[in-house]
What does this fold into?
Amino acid sequence: MSTSISMPPDVAFLTGQFSGGNVIKKVTRCGDLSGVFHDLTAWQAIPADTPVYEVEMLDSPQGEGELYVGMTHLHPGLVGDEFYMTRGHFHQRREQGEVYFGIRGSGLLLLQNEQGEARLEQVSPGSVHIIPGNTAHRLINTGTEILSALAVWPTVAGHDYRSLAGGFALRVTGHEGKIQAKDVQNG
It folds into this structure.
């Protein structure tokens, strides 16, 4: 009996780029992030077609037990005093978790439960982040280069952006080289 050996897709860990396999790509631009940044005037001053982040994911079978593998590439930048960030979301199926792996760059992972309790984790090359079910999550680039994070999540998880229409409980800002997390309720 002869067994064939197939070549799976791979990722270049220095750049976070996938090769092989069927890769789906999506670009999120500044104009797509209405309501995400606190300073509306600063957000409107940035051209709407300015890329903020790209997501690449391997096309995967759908259904229970199946997984997506994807890479987020979040550009450096500020909107007013807030760092560039992803939209952030809960999963539609709240019980579904996710795992992030820091690949390059530096930033933060903002995690928030359904009661509005938020916390931050430092993202850097080699960091591992276990995102439990019932937890919203958002990447924030606090560095000067692209922040790339590899993610693995169930294909059945879905995305729920509506539950965060009012935003996260924390805003992460940068001023004169200092990073600050501000409670949205208290300024």
About this structure: Helices lie at 40-45. The mean pLDDT is 93.
